[in-house]
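Project standup — Tuesday

K.O.: blocked on the structure for the chain from last sprint. Re-posting the sequence here as requested.
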Amino acid sequence: MSEPDDTGSRAQQARAICPFLTTKQTAFHLGLAPSTLKGMRTEGRGPVCRLHGRAWYYHINDIEAWSNARRKGGDHG
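H.V.: unblocked you, prediction finished:
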């Protein structure tokens, strides 16, 4: 039996423990394939990211800001 999807809780926990997510974690959080996120990074269309050593990391606040900037519909204030 699989566990229920608790992405919001996991993001909150990541923020408290370590605010940086890997490409794979970020892609999962955004509902994208890691290859899609990598392509977006290469083209400069994805969330702000940082190169730490040889790995790319995304700060949870940058992920959320990028996602919020793409909201459509509803009441934006």
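K.O.: great, moving the ticket to review. Strands lie at 20-22, 50-52, 55-59. The chain has one domain: 7-68.
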